């Protein structure tokens, strides 16, 4: 069975799940079905992906009971604020066709501190009402986490950040570990080649990396499998995205080999700070 990470909410999250960013409705529904067939029990979507309803259809069509699947979705930037957040989670639940999610995340921090804190008030209510079994954040830097620490009360169960061997996020991981917050990796394989970030999209330079390729060859596995093992061995929650059933199955078939200390050292040398998305402080998310 899939290793799980205990969350500060008292629930636990399967360490490996399926991501569906940039997947169309049709692709998403099929990918969710393929993932559940392959043994996945964790799906990560977001209101902003526009495919929550398709995730819901994939879940409903499967013979795997809903309560056996860990479902994550996220609050979009325009929905910051107390009342907006309460309305947003209800809309997501409706689109997903479920009466709770396992994890509800703030998708991006907001520069407006007071409004961000009002959103967090709502997140706490959402957790207390059971509409989400756990709540958390994405793309929070240590200084954003500090705002919630200073507020007192509930802390996020997870911080989902861009993280892979090019961008190992040591500061965020150290802070999260100190606070009992689990870290989830987005773009764990180095992202898509048609990334919609900024004027120029940056290519995936990890799946074709020579070091990753050499390690994969030594173990008789694929580069994607090496990368997923790297996240697992670092205690991270990892949600690789694919819409191809054979890759979805391949990405789950990572429990039959182990990376060596030497492999880890070689991969550590790839940490050059390459970021595909925007830095959370550069993104001016002044929600209307
Ligand atoms: P696709 O959906 O066409 O399979 P990330 O998870 O880092 O955001 O990036 C995933 C990217 O890597 C997607 O573009 C996905 O494309 C591709 N991908 C996912 N799994 C594999 C795999 N096992 N081998 C090669 N490419 C993969």
From TrEMBL:
Q: Which PANTHER family match?
A: 2,5-DIKETO-D-GLUCONIC ACID REDUCTASE, NADP-DEPENDENT OXIDOREDUCTASE DOMAIN-CONTAINING PROTEIN
Question: Where on this chain does substrate bind?
Answer: 107
Q: Where is this site: Lowers pKa of active site Tyr?
A: 74
Family per similarity comment: Belongs to the aldo/keto reductase family.
Lineage here is: Bacteria, Bacillati, Actinomycetota, Actinomycetes, Mycobacteriales
Keyword annotations from UniProtKB, A to Z:
NADP, Oxidoreductase
GO MF annotations, alphabetized: oxidoreductase activity, acting on the CH-OH group of donors, NAD or NADP as acceptor
Record-given protein name: Aldo/keto reductase
Species: Tomitella fengzijianii
Q: Where is the NADP-dependent oxidoreductase domain?
A: 16-271
Entry-linked Pfam families:
Aldo_ket_red (PF00248)
Extract the InterPro entries matched here: AKR, Aldo/ket_reductase_CS, NAD(P)_OxRdtase_dom_sf, NADP_OxRdtase_dom
The transmembrane segments are none
């Amino acid at each position: 069975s899939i290793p799980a990470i205990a969350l500060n909410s008292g629930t636990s999250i399967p360490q490996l799940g399926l991501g569906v960013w940039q997947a169309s409705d049709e692709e998403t529904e099929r990918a969710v079905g393929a993932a559940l067939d392959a043994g996945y029990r964790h799906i990560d979507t977001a209101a902003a992906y526009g495919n929550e309803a398709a995730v819901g259809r994939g879940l409903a069509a499967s013979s795997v009971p809903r309560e056996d699947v860990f479902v994550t979705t996220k609050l979009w930037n325009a929905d910051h604020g107390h009342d907006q957040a309460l309305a947003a989670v209800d809309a997501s639940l409706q689109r997903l066709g479920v009466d709770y999610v396992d994890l509800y995340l703030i998708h991006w921090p907001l520069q407006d501190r007071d409004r961000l804190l009002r959103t967090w008030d709502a997140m706490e209510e959402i957790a207390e009402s059971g509409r989400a079994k756990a709540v958390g954040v994405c793309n929070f830097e240590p200084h954003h986490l500090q705002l919630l620490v200073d507020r007192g009360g509930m802390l996020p169960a997870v911080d989902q950040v861009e993280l892979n061997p090019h961008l190992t996020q040591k500061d965020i991981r150290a802070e999260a570990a100190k606070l009992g917050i689990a870290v989830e990796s987005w773009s764990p394989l180095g992202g898509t080649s048609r990334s919609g970030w900024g004027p120029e999209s940056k290519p995936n330079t990890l799946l074709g990396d020579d070091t990753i390729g050499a390690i994969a060859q030594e173990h008789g596995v694929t580069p994607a499998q090496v990368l997923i093992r790297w996240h697992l061995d670092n205690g991270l929650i990892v949600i690789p995205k694919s819409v191809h059933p054979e890759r979805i199955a391949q990405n789950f078939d990572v429990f039959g080999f182990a990376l060596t200390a030497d492999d880890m050292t070689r991969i550590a040398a790839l940490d050059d700070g390459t970021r595909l998305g925007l830095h959370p402080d550069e993104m001016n998310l002044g929600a209307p």
